[in-house]
Amino acid sequence: MDLQLHNKVAIITGASRGIGRSIAQVLSAEGMRLVVAARSADLLAELARSCDSEVVPVAMDLRVETEPQRLIDIAVEKFGAIDLLVNNAGATKRGDFLELSESDWQDGFALKFFGAVRCSRSAWPHLQATNGSIVNIVGVGGRTGSAEFAIGGSVNAAVLNLTKVLADRGVADGIRVNAINPGAIATDRLQTRIGAFASDRGISLAEAAGQMAATLGISRFGEPEEIARAVAFLASPGFSQGAILDIDGGQTRTL
Fold first, then answer.
1. Pick from 221, 197, 159, 206: nearest CA to 19
2. Residue range 149-174: average pLDDT?
3. Fewer CB atoms near the end CB (10 Å): N or C, the chain?
4. What average pLDDT is seen over the chain?
5. What distance in Å separates the CA atoms of residue 255 and residue 242, rounded to the nearest whole number?
């Protein structure tokens, strides 16, 4: 199926590994030209070599207030336009609410929430010019609270509301804004948690993965490419606006 993405321009944050890396590879295979951002220059360079289309790697820390604007400026200077912004950057610290520090909370919001706010604001006029779109990669923790995911759940809920806010503005400005809530996806971070779970219980990695998935009420963990394919769908011309797509193997059971 032709998603009508060939030769269009996408910016992907948090692209050096995991879901962001897979999004870059899938969109590149669709023929999009990419600007990919993360803190690791080496991983971004390796990603660029693995892609099929032209990729501009930009090593930066999007927690710095001025960096989102610089990222947008680089994309426009290189390609002359922006058709898609994927706000994917932002890992948050897990832990008990009473043990999380003030700096932990500030850091959690600095990258994922304020990074998305600033990138979206800076990209907005360019997306308006192309009738482009924004896809926010958020997470099911924003829909269901968990004692060990206080920061992540709060940040994700804020980004979900931001998605609705921008989608409402986007109706008038011709920009589609949607979000994806990944569930438990087999990234490096999840593999680390599986390893710790296996070590604590003296079981194999396969057994640990199965037990952890069962506690979530799902049959397996998802793959990064499954999220990436959904990004490509939402980036293609369509009627979705303000949609929040849960891709979590059935973990979220609320309406």
1. 221
2. 97
3. C
4. 96
5. 16
Cα(38)–Cα(58) distance, rounded to whole angstroms? 7
The full set of domains in the chain, from first to last, is 9-185+222-247 (3.40.50.720), 186-221 (no CATH)
Tell me what the mean pLDDT of segment 178-205 comes to.
90
Q: H/E/C letters for each residue in 45-86? A: HHHHHHCCCCEEEEECCCCCCCHHHHHHHHHHHHHCCCCEEE
The helix, strand and coil proportions of the chain, stated in percent and rounded to the nearest 5, come to 50, 15, 35
Rounded Cα–Cα distance for residues 234 and 1 (Å): 14
List C-alpha distances in Å: 166 to 14, 120, 133, 191.
Answer: 21, 9, 10, 34
How far is the CA of 255 from the CAs of 52, 213, 242, 250, in angstroms? 39, 21, 16, 12
pLDDT of residue 190: 83
Helix (H, G, I), strand (E, B) or coil at 122: helix
Q: How far apart are CA 155 and CA 139, in angstroms?
A: 10
Q: Which of 210-214, 230-234, 246-250 has the lowest mean pLDDT?
A: 210-214
> Is 251 within 8 Å of 221 (Cβ atoms)?
no
DSSP 83-105: -EEEE-------B-GGG--HHHH
Tell me the backbone φ, ψ of residue 244, rounded to 5 degrees: -120, 110
Residue whose token pair is 């930066």: 60
Compute the distance between CA of residue 185 and CA of residue 22 in angstroms, rounded to an integer. Answer: 12
DSSP 142: G
Least confident of 98-112, 135-149, 193-207, 210-224: 193-207
Residue 126, amino acid: H
